[in-house]
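REVIEWER CHECKLIST
Item 1: Sequence provided? yes
Item 2: Single chain? yes
Item 3: Sequence as submitted:
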Amino acid sequence: MNNNHLIDVLKLINRLQKEATIPTNASCTKPLLGDVNSFNTRPVTFYSCNNSLLTVNYYTDNTLNTSSVFRVEDINNSCVTVRLLAQEEGAYVATEEFATININCICAIRCLNDINLTI
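Item 4: Structure as written out by the authors:
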């Protein structure tokens, strides 16, 4: 399977996030996520070819947690490194947990509404 389109989408999301700022004076030279000019993250979910939502387990204070929402951090060849996002009080927050996912295991990407994360 050729995943060039998925890689291109992930690279675009990663580039936009890296170029995003929370400016005091918005500028045309700094692409921003969303239309409020205050977002720095486009959360994504991934689906395998059998339409299963990809989830990653992680521990916080000896408690098992599961995340299916991620922030793209890097793309290297056919792998994407993501930051796991947790949901607290209806909002996503950044964790200090990361995963590397083989893009060949992904058949679909769902982009969620842009958000601002403290990273």
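Item 5: Key structural point noted by reviewer: Residues 14 and 72 are 6 Å apart (CA to CA).
Item 6: Recommendation: ____
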